[in-house]
Amino acid sequence: MAETSIEWTDVVWNVTKGCSRKSPGCGGGTPGSRKGGCYAERMAIRMSGLGQPYEGLVESTPAGPRWTGKVVLDPAKLDEPLRWKKPRRVFVNSMSDLFHEALSFEDIDRVFATMRLAERHTFQVLTKRADRMREYVEWARRRSVVDGIEVVPGSPITWERAHPNVWLGVSVEDRMRVERIAHLRATPAAVRFISFEPLLEDVGTVDLAGIHWAIVGGESGPGARPMHPVWARRLRDQCVKAGVAFFFKQWGAWKPYCTMTESEADALYEALPEGVPDDAPRRCTVASATFPTEPLPVGGEVHTLFELGKKHAGRMLDGRTWDEYPAEARHA
Predict the structure, then answer these.
(1) 112-123 exposure pattern, b = at least 16 Cβ within 10 A, e = fewer
(2) C-alpha–C-alpha distance, residues 158 and 156, integer Å
(3) Quick one: pLDDT at residue 28?
(4) Is the peptide bond preceding residue 292 cis, with omega within 30 degrees of 0?
(5) Residue 297: exposed, middle, or buried by beta-carbon count in 10 A (0-12, 13-18, 19+)?
(6) Of 83, 112, 210, 255, which is least packed with CB atoms within 10 Å of its CB?
(7) H/E run at residue 125
(8) What span, in angstroms and rounded, lies between the C-alpha atoms of 165 and 331?
(9) Nearest-angstrom CA–CA distance, 161 and 150
(10) What is the pLDDT of residue 34?
């Protein structure tokens, strides 16, 4: 079991190792660019030496750590959740993607078999490969019908009914990736959720039908990209209107000026020497950015953000934290 600081879960279960970049939310760019990177790559490279857990799965490149594309199932970790007696929310694969193309459906099925047996826990599975998640579930459902899988002896139960403790989610970081939600909606699950993290642009109006939970967060780490507060607020408002549980995870590395107290904002600037008028220009001591650099599709609010780091930027949105969870597990 690995304790975690991820706000919306209790522990992480890294039952597979390795990955590859899929879309802009994974970061990218060239050395010295202001494009964020994959936190899992940065963590894995420190454990990639000879005989270490991530040997051969990640490598150093001129652009920074990069996955090699090799992904493996760790058999030693398969039965871990069965030994955890206290019920927990379990984030499956914070360092990988369970639906990566390098994993066979049979390997993925072994992970789902453990989740089915560890019914005291709630498993949160998040992917950028929404189409392959849907394909796996369709494959598993057909197999359960053909093989007559028995969850309760003498009583065959369909695949989706056998996994009431599994939440399936997709990452959506920009408008182009909104199409992943359609695959999620077509996939049977007790709870379906969307992680809008890192939120890299205004994703517009989102069809939340069949969705139970939404997580929103800005990017953190080296070279993090700012999140405009309007993007987060629009998603919050849509969730409230649709009755979808909303969880605001973090501002990320950049905090909007509009969310700061007067004392917080004042601390960003050098103090004026004695005798200098109070209205004299003061030098800002941290990096800042003004967004948008071009008009937003709707509205056009301009906001200044300051690069304070995740801890100091915090996770307050409009004067409060948003820590909502789905009210109940539902089948659909």
Answers:
(1) bebbbebbebbb
(2) 7
(3) 57
(4) yes
(5) exposed
(6) 83
(7) strand 122-127
(8) 11
(9) 11
(10) 46
CA-closest candidate to residue 152, choices 121, 119, 128, 103: 119
pTM for this one?
0.92
Question: Which one-letter amino acid corresponds to residue 75?
Answer: P
- CA-closest candidate to residue 268, choices 252, 257, 279: 257
Amino acid symbol at 234: R
- What pLDDT shows up at residue 146? 55
Measuring CA to CA, how many Å separate 32 from each of 37, 58, 101, 155, 289?
Answer: 12, 20, 30, 59, 17
Give the H or E element holding residue 266: helix 262-266
Which residues, listed in sequence order, are joined to residue 323 by a DSSP beta bridge? 247
- Mean pLDDT by runs of 10 across the 332 residues of the chain is 86 96 78 63 93 94 92 96 96 97 96 95 98 96 65 56 92 97 96 97 96 97 92 97 97 96 92 82 91 68 94 96 79 40
Separation between Cα atoms, residue 217 and residue 250, nearest integer Å: 5
Give the C-alpha separation, 88 to 108, whole Å.
Answer: 21
DSSP 29-51: --TT-S----HHHHHHGGG-STT
